[in-house]
Amino acid sequence: MFDKVELSVSAYDTAWVAMVPTPNSPNAPLFPRCVEWVLENQLNDGSWGRPHRDPFLTKDALSSTLACVLALKRWDMAEGHVKKGLHFIESNFASINDQKQHSPIGFDIIFPGMVEYARHMDLVLPLAPRDLDSIFWLRDLELERCHRGDSNGIKAYLASLSEGMGKLNDWNSIMSYQRKNGSLFNSPSTTAAALTHTQDVNCLNYLQMLLENFVGGVPTIYPLDVRGRLSVVDNLENLGIDRHFKQEIRKVLDETYRGWLQKDEEISLDLTTCAMAFRLLRTHGYDVSSDLLTQFAEEDQYLDSLEGQYDETSAVLELFRASQLAIYPSDWALERQNSWSQEFLQRKLHNGSIRDDNLRKQVINALSFPYHSCFDRVVHKAYLEHYDPKYVKMAKTSYCCSNISNEDFHNLGLIDFNMCQLQHQQEIKQLEKWETQCRFAQLKFSRQWLGYCYLSAAATHFSPELSDARISFVKHSVLTCVADDFFDVGSSKEEQENLIELFKKWDIDDTTKFCSETVEILFLALHRTISETADIAFRWQGRCVKDHLIEIWMDVLKSMWREAKWASNKTVPTMDEYIKTGYVSIALGPVLLPVLYLVGPKLSEEVVRSCEYDELFKLMSTCGRLLNDAQSYEREAKQGKLNAVHLHMIHNDNIITEEDSVKAVKDMIDENRKKLLRMILETKGSVVPRECKDLFWDMSRVLHFFYSVDGFTSPKEMISAMNEVIHKPFDLK
User: Fold this and answer.
1) What pTM value is reported for the model?
2) What are the backbone angles phi and psi of residue 393, rounded to the nearest 5°?
3) Cβ(113)–Cβ(399) under 8 Å?
4) pLDDT tens, 117-129?
5) Three-state DSSP class for 731?
6) Bridge partners for 393 per DSSP
7) Where is the Terpene synthase N-terminal domain (predicted)?
8) CA 8 to chain centre
9) Residue 26 belongs to what H/E stretch?
10) Bridge partner residues of 22 (DSSP)
11) Which of 151, 220, 230, 215 is nearest to 183 (CA)?
12) Residues 84, 46: contact at Cβ < 8 Å?
């Protein structure tokens, strides 16, 4: 799959190549093997095309069948095949006017063009005059639309359909679209028509090369190597099994990057491939500019392109995915693309114009799970559920590519998901025992957070080998929730001071004094869990990190204590003071930073004390604090809690509205998130390993998803996600 892209044979394109005559002997085919393929591959119903086709692909079969009939008639052979083909066309012609049928690209121009070609060969089609009039009327409408526009995109569109344009072709103009490989649009059918009319040697070389790679039958697009290999990478990531193929993926991306730098036409001249390459290369840390995508900054620019004329929703989908990776000021075009492509896809869904069921589900998933706000495992589950191993795409004819979809990928994804899920279920039981041992149920203010916390861990760090990381994540998440409730509503000033002093002392002996059972329960749970985590981290790191873990927790407890005193004294801090304290008190440090020691890379003291490490943590945590505030400002105002939204209003003398303040906070979130993503993706000068940097982004995505549905007060979506990720396996029967 990584080394070779496998494409299905196109009866339509093979027929056009079969019709190319020998230059010095016009009554003999130049490519007799293609003629043989046509002779040998007629289906039982008289048609040519994909066997066992979908009922909604009848128009596609009509186009392929007429092309093959013309090829046989061109060389005056196989009269029986021709009669059977004509009978199929007659019997199924009504499908042309069926709006539910999936229509090949350019059908309304190419099919009437082939009918005219049949007349030229004195081939009588068994069609009523009114039926013939209807298809020519549709062609005239389409040509009239094109001539009204007369844009570069329309000119390219008509050139790409030149095999069906007949006498309307201007071959000098059409040949300006010839690519370095000799083809026109990487289309065998269009290139065959060009060779027939121009005798161009580069067209000939392309088709000869094609026949060296395919025995008789040719595909409808060639080459498709870059997109095919990138589709393998994309599939593996979407199915959640890419971790099994790291070396193979790196090889594909290295090759793609070389092609990107060399402006390989497979990338630069194909919008779908270009957008996919940009997205995968940038997310994997390659230094790629968005310049190649600036030509699609506005919807009108897309509509004026070849893909726009093809009405390729899949191309817009790839643009939308790529547009979410705007991290530099020079990525202004991506910002605009994100806006119009999102609206375009929503419009397509709303008006029901996406007839491809698989593509429609992909669009729904992309809109439902934006790159910055999703649980990986929820995305994987949805992708596995909707995955079609036999997915057929449509160009001038239908085709499939095993690199784009196949049963092996799907089966491995299903098995892997269930295996991971089984381990997750076992870990939850282990964590429930820990929670009981901690005696949290005896705390009147304590809420049940274990399920939510485990979902956040398993939905991002799901692989079996990350068990230590998951368990640490969950334990410290639960502890931060308990500590937050302790400082908010569950403790007196004396208890808060006692907890801080105990933490400063740390060691427990006969002189240790707890001023209440609440303090004792919380401190002992913290002490035991931090010590256990340090012991596990020692096995991963080969050095003791307990002092660092204690320091992380001390910073959080002090910040929570400071906020509690602000509330008690009715102190109004400055915005800078609030953020400086708030990004620590949101308590993501104890949750995430210990996990960095448990995922593989060795982290030296220099790395964890580096400016890069601190900035990654600050950006992620600031996003978390502001996301909380933007979502919960109304609730927290009633509870008397400080909040960035209301502080922003206060420090602007209350001259701005609450709505404006919320917008200002959301703008701050966007700015910090982009900075975070830029730091994660950039490699130059970075000392924090990429595996660790990714954890900061994963946490940011969890926070965005969690607060997008207000997981604290509206648990319905979170419970649904828990069931999908942790409790509902796939039926593998």
Assistant:
1) 0.95
2) -100, 160
3) no
4) 999 999 999 999 9
5) coil
6) 399
7) 170-367
8) 25
9) strand 25-29
10) 25
11) 220
12) yes
